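Work Package 3 (structural annotation) set out to generate three-dimensional models for the target panel prioritized at the project kickoff. During this period the team completed the workflow that converts sequence records into discrete structure tokens, so that structures can be stored uniformly alongside our sequence database. As a representative example, we reproduce one entry of 604 residues exactly as it appears in the project archive.
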Amino acid sequence: MITLLCASSVPAQTEILDSTEIPLVPTEALEQALAGIKLTASDISFRNDYTEIDSFRLPVVDSLMRNPVRLVDFADDLADLLFLKRELSLGSLSLFEASDFLSLPDFDADQQLEGSATRVKEFVDSMTSQLTWTEIAFLRDTFPEMLREDVEDEFRSEEELDSLEKLGEELVKRLVPVALKLKQSQYVANLARAAVSFYNRSVHLVDSISAMMQDPLGTAEFEKRIETPSGVIVVGGYGPNRYRGEFVYLIDLGGDDIYELERTDSPQFIHDLSGNDAYIALTDFSIGSGLFYPAFLVDCAGDDIYSGKSFSLGSGLFSVGALVDRGGNDRYIADTHTQGAGSFGLGLLIDESGSDSYQCALYGQAFGCVRGLGALCDLSGNDTYFAGGKYKDILRYKDHYLSLSQGFAYGFRPRMSGGIAILADSSGHDTYISDIFGQGASYWFAVGLQADYTGNDKYMSFQYAQGAATHLTAALLLDKVGDDFYFSKGVSQGCGHDLASGILIDYLGNDTYQAYDLSQGAGSANGFGWLADYRGDDTYQVRVASNTQGYGNPRRDYGSIGLLMDLMGKDSYIGNGSNQSYWMNDSKWGIGMDVDFWSPDTSR
């Protein structure tokens, strides 16, 4: 086994990949590269008070901005939690204030299963009782419009677009005092705890019903429907069933089923035990979509199709929304705020096996907005992710589309700091396609993460992607094992712009990086950009050599930091640099480093 360890007074977090023990953060190599531009790791830090600190800032965001190198450990820990490789430590991975998780009352801990939907509804209503009906209506009906785009915008005049932008700013102003009431009541943390309790009780209920109605031959066809004050409860048999409408509980024991689902203004739990099923959204806010009240959809087996609209497929808006698929080659299609999207809540999509296809237009595939966590976790299979293609980025380009997806976190500048997003894929040869903003990216005091553990993967985007952070924020793309291909035009591949930190780290494999400009370890407008490749025979290509591959420009009377570090292998470059060399382009605080930092037979 080759042992690659960094020498440090503090034990480094390491991992064995491909029979190789490596440090997750190349601390010693980083210090050596920074010494070439007369800096140290302590110089890579951002204050939290460049602007007024708003009340929605997550402490973990400030912490990671103060020490951006910690993004690597944070992303790996969070991905391992999603992969169930380690237990959650609230002390080390609290996404909200520590007080959010302390001294909370037990929620129905000793209550019986009967009436669980009613009790969780009453609990949520009690938390929102401080709001007026007008404020609740604003959060329920108006705020979602702030997260939508309109395909007709590309045909509007500049005056109309300016008017829409001003309207959006006014809506954010209106949102702040209402959201503050929820934040002060520790709404998200309390709701998450209530949702987990509701989920656990519902799972026990499903197990009980399945045991009572077990058919060894799996041939019983039936549908039992019960009307309750909380909503409709349905239990379906082993044959093909078709369900349409609103449901509180829907439990199906087997068969190839069709679900035509509508928005349900109550807690919801849907559980399908087997079959090749089709889930079709008739309205927004359906299919694993929580709006105030938690919603869960669990499918245990089969090649399934999930066709959602906006706010679907693991969407939590002032709530918790989760979709869990445990087997099969599945297809996920939806529009906006979907496939693991959380805003003032938690949105989660987990797919445990199969080669799957994910497609969305906007704010999806792991999206975290204000006080939100959005996560998409895929545990195995050769998967394809596509985000964009519907809403044009009319302010910048006429021929490119907004994605704002695939591990993208977002805040409302300048009033409300953003959330946390992570797209984590455990294994398989995967393809990721986005356009504008995606693949480990963030905007305005947020943390956007993408982590892929194994497989020969392809990452393709246009701008603000692949470890790209813009405007006081932090982002990371981490790939552990595989021969990977990265393409993006610019502000990508380890780029931090405007007091932001953008990082791309690839550990093992023969990789190819292609970009045009401001990429491959580029710091701009006092940002920090870092691309580090540990091992493999790699290729780096850029169109513009002057602001890439280890570039940091001066701005506001002080500098930016850009680092490109390749630490082992026979590598080739088009642009700057060469194998077994150090280089500096025209920037003052940028450096490139290609050395065999770790010898195959030497432990460092």
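The chain has eight helices and 47 strands.
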